Amino acid sequence: MIVELFGPPGAGKTTFAHALAKRLQERGLRAELKLSYRPVEHLQPPAPRMTPAAQYRYLAMRLRRPLVEMLVIARHPLVNARDVRTAAHLVRSLPPASVFASFKMAQYALRLSHSWHEKAGAAHVVLFDQAFVQAVCSLALLAGGVDDTLIGSALAWAPKSDLLVRLIAPLDLLKARLHDRQNVQSALEQLFEPNLSRSLASAQMVDRLSDVLQQQGRSVLSASSVDQSSLEESVCRIEREVTSRLQSCTQNNALRPAVRAVAPFRAGDGYE
After folding, report:
1. Are 109 and 66 spatial neighbours (Cβ–Cβ below 8 Å)?
2. DSSP readout, 38-93?
3. CA dist 30 to 23, 128, 180, Å?
4. What is the DSSP letter of 158?
5. H or E segment at 221?
6. What is the pLDDT along the chain (272 residues), one digit of tens a residue?
7. Which residues contact 146 (CB under 8 A, 6 or more apart)?
8. CA distance 190 to 193
9. Exposed, middle or buried: residue 159 (CB in 10 Å: 0-12, 13-18, 19+)?
10. Are strands 31-34 and 2-6 parallel, antiparallel or unpaired?
11. pTM for this entry
12. CA 26 to CA 20: how far, in whole Å?
């Protein structure tokens, strides 16, 4: 079961993913995290400005994961042709204005598709703190001036999660969180992160995506990690939904063998 989170930068997607995974595990369920990667969060201790040595470590950490994942995919080009098609279609649907942005989003979508399909159909819960809906949001922002028809086409093509959760937060809080994040970033880090204006613009784009998703008949649950109280309330609510869906899926799977046993197909039974 895949649970996909989306929302603007600073809304607390990764924080919520960790909290939900912990709650599910406390309930005796297996929950696996597939997180986006911001290496600066793993450099300890955090500092207002990185030293030259720390900048080299940051650059190595930022590039290592995508490079390793691309090499793994390249070893099996025929098996992963589906991932290539997915990435190519998404970028063609919402082409970014620059060649560099197109390449960056294409390799990201390729790696995401590979990771996604490895977990598709898993019996346990797999949490993506951001995945295809977030990728479509980024592509729409990079393309500029796209209408909802193109956004809808990209969303319809992208693989679909079993449960879709939108992280919401007031714009003032997003601004404050993003300012705080930017203040501790070096110039090198900022090369890999969206600038403040684009990050804030994503809040409006997320609203548009939510509307399009609902028009397509997809259910979108809302959650919040604005403070500890809202985080706990949202985690409890989403955990109940996940548990309910898992139980329903288990019951349906248990019924299927019994249904087949009632009327097995055999030669001479009169079927034509």
Report:
1. no
2. -GGGGSSS--SS--HHHHHHHHHHHHHHHHHHHHHHHT-TTTTHHHHHHHHHHHHH
3. 10, 14, 34
4. S
5. strand 220-224
6. 999 999 999 999 999 999 999 999 999 999 999 988 543 333 333 445 556 666 556 555 555 555 555 555 555 555 578 888 899 999 999 999 888 888 889 888 988 998 999 899 888 999 999 999 999 999 999 998 899 999 999 999 999 999 999 999 999 999 998 888 777 666 555 555 667 777 888 999 999 999 999 999 999 999 999 999 999 999 999 999 999 999 887 776 665 554 343 333 333 333 33
7. 94, 140
8. 5
9. middle
10. unpaired
11. 0.77
12. 10
Q: 3-state DSSP call for residue 6?
A: strand
Assign domain 2-262 one CATH number from 3.40.50.1370, 3.30.420.40, 3.40.120.10, 3.40.50.300: 3.40.50.300
Break the chain into its structural domains and give their ranges.
Answer: 2-262
